[in-house]
Design brief:
Structural class: mainly alpha
Number of strands: 0
Helix content: 55-70%
Number of helices: 13
Length: about 210
Amino acid sequence: MYKSNIEEDIEHIVNANPFIRMTAALALGRTVDASAVPALIRALNDEIPSVVIGASFALGEIKDLAAVAPLIDTLKAKNSTVRAGAACALGKLGHVSAVPALIETLHDTNHSVRSVVVTAIGQIRDARGVPALIEALDDDYGFIRSRSASALGAIGDRSAVFPLIEALEDDDYNVRECAATALGEIGAASAVPALFQALKDDNWLV
C-alpha cells in the first residue's frame, strides 16, 4: 500500500510521470495536511486530467479555503470529469462563495457534471441555490432530479415545498422517494396531504 511522506509527495506532484503525480496528489489528500495545499493548487493546472482530478479530491479532503477560488476556475475546464471533480471538491469545502459559480455550472451540457453540482449545492446549504435546484427538478435525467430533491431537503428552504410536492408525481420512483424525504426534512405542514397520498404509491420505497 502506498504510504504518504508529505515532503516527498509534494516533490512528486511535479514528477515527469503523470501516474506518480496523480498518486502523490491522492496521497496528500489522505494526509489532510494544509502544507500541501499550494502544490495541489498548482496541480490544478496540470495538462493530464487524472492529475487535476486527484488534486481536486485532495483539496476537498484537506478543506483549506485557499482552494476555493482555484477550484471555481477549474469548473471551466474543457474536460467534463475535471469539472465534476472540482464541483465535488467545492461541495466538500462547503464555502458559500462557490455557490454562484456552481449555479452557473448547472447549465453544463454534461449530465454527470450537473449531477455532482446539485449535490455540491446541497452540501453548502445556501438558499441562493434553491431556484436553480428547483429548475433542476425538471432535468431530463432522473438521477439529477432525485439529487436536486435531496439537495433541496438538505437546504430546507420552504420555497421548495410546492415544487417538491409536484415531484411526488414524477415518473421516476427515485425522484418521488427523494422528494418525499425532502418534504419531511423541510417539515412544512402544507405537504402533509400530498404525503398521505404518496403512501398509496405503487413503489414501496416511496
